[in-house]
Write a structure and sequence with these properties.
One of its GO terms (molecular function) is zinc ion binding. The protein is of the alpha+beta class and about 600 residues long. It has helices spanning about 50-85, 90-105, 160-165, 180, 190-205, 215-245, 315-325, 330-335, 350-355, 420-430, 445-465, 470, 475-490, 500-510, 515-535, 540-550, 575-580; strands spanning about 15, 20-25, 25, 45, 110-120, 130-140, 145-150, 155-160, 170-175, 270-275, 280-285, 295-300, 305, 360, 365-370, 375-380, 385-390, 395-400, 410. The radius of gyration is 30 Å and the shape is globular. It binds S-adenosylmethionine.
């Protein structure tokens, strides 16, 4: 609740909203909120602090919405000069402003979308707006919508007025940051601006938007300061941009300004040692034979971040800094010694995190820094696999095939079914290197074959996973999973891909009531999972419970087309006959 003391002169008077006595104090939270279309908000008066307190529960919702409206107008008042300083309009302004907008809108409790509009061709544009407009569409509480026009007239306009006056139609509508995300390589000034925004956020205690809430005078001072900071920084920004351009990659795809990979402090264990690996900086190398399925390492994260902060570098940085402050000197030192692929692009700690973070779960957006595991290099034919073990609260690294002494231990940084070009693109843009592993350095003909297999694998995975085929055409789906297993073997992929395919086959069987086949597929899935992540992983345990009781899966009996009890797994068949039964080759 805001006090009734505002920095506005108290010339008006009205009736106290609580007791109806004559009053001159206005609620400082919503006083002077701008009108929305034709509706001008009434002023809320109080005769005393007590009355204001008593009335708060009735006034709260309206007051908060009006405060948000005020803040939105302030956002516009900051964005306009910032946009002018960065000197671009339209889509380019949207890309350049993305980091700033993400921070300034954060905490405002509004939905922001990036919208492109055009004037309709059969109408005369009476507003003087040019043909294409790039705007932020901002919705407060689902019931009032505003436009912040990046090509022209600030302050915000109510959405419907704006559309009508400019005779505009919507061409595309996307979430905030969409146009920035669509650009795979940012221009140097944008990258440098991201850095600048991060520093400003840090200077504002992690919340750039906080100053939107202060008095008019404070807000104006802070705005001037922010704009001056950006203006003053533009010279440096341009110089930095030049440096970034100059620091392009060398022949190996490594950034020329990459650090010199100082030796790690970590002690060698019985199984591996962290040491220099030619052309890759540091890496993890086996010191003795490591049999398939061995847990090479289990490690708790030194630092973690929640997901979804990729475009809020300032916030991201604050979260990491706070945790770094709590670490002991040696651990902090080891964090700073990790490789940074984003030098000069992001502030150092954000760059180190982005280069080294590993996911805390399958496809999780939360990430963690592991001081040992972060030294493991990539191979598209990896011999080890990283998984998050929720029960232990640790990352585990398992050998997915036998590893010989002296061999480098590798994990994969990319999705297994990606083509050669997709893999190289991801590794080059995200990690600054070109992969020359066995799969990537195969002959062009072999690579073409491999890409065909991978494309087919991706298609099959999509078809099996769409949820329709497993009940509409289960046999075809089952055979698709068999084709996937065959392709994986041909592609000589590591164990890591097998559990998900066996699990698809399990789902086809169980959705159609066949507990016997489902049990066999669950067993195979479990066996692969144990190799990849151990038997103490939550997911492995769950699959084990499905081996014991396949019918406990939620899809059980979606149809009963293949109804069969779990105990019906045949035990008197040879290997070939068993496979033939399992895949329903013959009418068993
Ligand atoms: C998570 S770190 C791995 C450890 C890193 N090599 C080090 O020295 O700390 C990721 C970085 O390692 C390097 N890297 C990883 N795999 C590589 C590979 N297969 N070839 C070349 N460089 C690689 C790249 O510089 C990448 O940005």
């Amino acid at each position: 609740m805001k006090s009734t003391e505002s920095d506005e002169p108290r010339s008006e008077c009205g009736r106290c909203s609580s007791c109806s006595k004559e009053a001159t104090n206005r609620c400082a939270g919503c006083v002077d909120a701008p009108a929305y279309g034709k509706s001008t908000p009434r002023t809320t008066f109080y005769c005393s602090g007590q009355c204001q307190k008593a009335h708060w529960s009735a006034h709260k919702v309206e007051c908060k919405a009006l405060q948000t409206r005020k803040s939105l107008h302030r956002v516009a008042a900051v964005l306009a000069p910032v946009r002018d300083v960065i000197g671009v309009e339209g889509k380019q302004a949207m890309v350049r402003l993305a980091a700033f907008a993400a921070e300034i809108f954060d905490g405002l409790n509004v939905t922001v979308e990036e919208v492109i509009l055009t004037t309709t061709s059969d109408t005369t544009d009476t507003s003087g707006l040019s043909k294409t407009r790039h705007v932020y569409k901002v919705t407060i509480n689902d019931d009032e919508t505003w436009v912040l026009d990046l090509d022209g007239p600030f302050p915000p306009w109510p959405w419907s007025d704006y559309i009508r006056r400019g005779c505009l139609k919507v061409d595309s509508i996307h979430s905030l940051g969409f146009h920035r995300r669509a650009v795979s390589v940012l221009d140097p000034i944008t990258r440098a601006l991201v850095f600048q925004v991060a520093s400003m956020v840090t200077a504002h205690g992690g919340k750039l938007g906080a100053f939107l809430k202060g008095s008019k005078a404070t807000f104006q001072d802070e705005t001037n300061r922010l704009v001056e900071e950006i203006r003053g920084a533009m010279t440096a920004v341009k110089a930095a941009a030049k440096n970034i351009t100059l620091s392009a990659s060398n022949d190996n795809g490594q950034p020329l300004n990459a650090p010199s990979h100082a030796p790690s402090q970590s002690p060698a264990t019985g199984l591996y040692r962290i040491q220099a690996v030619p052309g890759k900086g540091q890496g993890m190398v086996a010191t003795s034979k490591i049999p398939r399925g061995t847990r090479i390492l289990s490690e708790a994260p030194a630092i973690t971040t929640p997901g979804g902060l990729e475009h809020q570098i300032g916030r991201f940085q604050t979260i990491i800094s706070r945790q770094l402050d709590k670490l002991d000197d040696q651990t902090r030192h080891r964090f700073y010694a990790l490789h940074n692929n984003y030098e000069g692009v992001f502030p150092p700690i954000a760059g180190i995190f982005k280069t080294n973070a590993l996911p805390l779960g399958h496809k999780a957006s939360e990430g963690g820094i592991f001081l040992e595991a972060s030294r493991i290099n990539h191979s598209c034919k990896n011999n080890a696999e990283n998984t998050w073990n929720k029960t232990l609260g640790k990352l585990t690294i398992h050998a997915v095939r036998d590893i010989q002494p002296g061999e480098e231990i590798t994990i994969s940084y990319v999705d297994a079914f990606k083509s050669y070009d997709e893999r190289q693109h991801h590794l080059q843009t995200g990690f600054g290197f070109s992969c020359d592993c066995e799969r990537c350095s195969a002959s062009p003909a072999e690579r073409r074959h491999s890409d065909q297999r991978l494309r087919r694998l991706a298609t099959l995975e999509k078809e099996v996973g769409d949820g329709v085929g497993i009940v509409a055409t289960p046999l075809s789906c089952l055979w698709k999973t068999r084709e996937m297993l065959r392709l994986l073997r041909e592609e000589v992929m590591t164990e890591s891909c097998f559990p998900r395919v066996y699990f698809d086959a399990f789902q086809v069987a169980i959705a159609n009531g066949d507990q016997a086949r489902a049990r066999v597929f669950a067993e195979r899935c479990y066996a692969s999972r144990v190799v990849v992540e151990g038997d103490d992983n939550e997911d492995s345990r769950w699959v084990k419970s499905l081996v014991e009781k396949p019918s406990s899966h939620r899809l059980y009996g979606t149809t009963m087309k293949w109804k069969q009890a779990a105990k019906k797994v045949p035990c008197d068949l040879g290997e070939e006959e068993f496979e033939s039964w399992l895949w329903k080759d013959t009418p068993w």
